[in-house]
Amino acid sequence: MEKKLNFKLVEPNKSLSDFVYCFSSLQNISYHDRDAVIIPNGKVDLIFSKINNETLTVALLGLETKPKYITGEVSDFFAVSFHPFAIEYVFNQSIAGILNSGKILQNNFWDICIDDLNDFDNFCKKIAQKISSLLPEKTDDRKRRLFQFVFESNGEIPIKELSEKIFWSQRQINRYFNLQFGLSLKAYCKILRFQASLDHIKSGELYPQLNFTDQSHFIKEIKQLSGVSPKELHKNENDRFLQFLVYDQK
């Protein structure tokens, strides 16, 4: 008998909400005859996966600007999804070099062991405590407000307006994005608008609800970021598009 896919999502407490989007667990998933698809969501994921109940693998994934296809056996995993704002404070490094890719970390990263992947609630508590211990007393308020405005607008705020709101030049903003994340602010905002469109598409609204130029532009952008048309994305045959699991939890 095929095991039922088990997905859990836990939101962080308020003290971490500027840094962490969510904690998640995905278990009992196996794709042998079809692809699973992970589509860009504008978050940076730290993945702890268990292979054959013996090996713990830890990977940091950069931002995605195109769909990622996973064929074959997909391991159970626990994950932390970070807002990009968190990266320089939690990891003290740029992730520009792992755009659309990732890197393997030490298998004892943050003192997580394979037994921690047996209890999701305790995993969330342990990881939350670790992240809290790493955060500095002060962060750059311009950067915090930058992400606040782009999230609130679903990526539709003009960079000129954003620059004026946070008193940071357009050139400096784009330099920050390119050096820290490996893409421009415009490219990142496109991902956020795409993400905001997913809820509409899942509900069967296959015409642009946000600030796309026209239907053709809407279809082109959805295809670019998901690999399929809005109609195919809405069907989500075989539950291929794992991002829709998040909406089922809300």
Largest sheet: 6 strands, antiparallel
How many beta-strand runs?
Answer: 8
> How is the largest sheet built, in terms of strand order?
1-2-7-4-5-8
Structural Rg: 18 Å
Structural class: alpha+beta
- Percent of residues in helical segments? 25-40%
How many domains make up the coordinates? 2
Distance between the termini: 28 Å
User: Averaging pLDDT over every residue, what do you get?
Assistant: 88
Helix segment count? 9
Structure description:
With 250 residues, this protein is an alpha+beta fold. The protein folds into two domains: 129 residues, no CATH class; 108 residues, Arc Repressor Mutant, subunit A, CATH 1.10.10. It is 37% helix and 22% strand. It contains nine helices and eight strands. 26% of the residues are buried. The model has no long low-confidence stretch (mean pLDDT 88).
Q: Brief overview, please?
A:
With 250 residues, the protein is α+β, with helices and mostly antiparallel strands.
Summarize the topology:
Layout: E1 6-10, E2 20-27, E3 30-38, E4 44-51, E5 55-61, E6 68-73, E7 76-82, H1 87-90, E8 102-105, H2 120-134, H3 141-152, H4 159-166, H5 170-181, H6 185-202, H7 215-226, H8 230-235, H9 244-248
Key phrases:
single chain, 250 residues, alpha+beta, Arc Repressor Mutant, subunit A, 2 domains, six-stranded antiparallel sheet, 9 helices, 8 strands
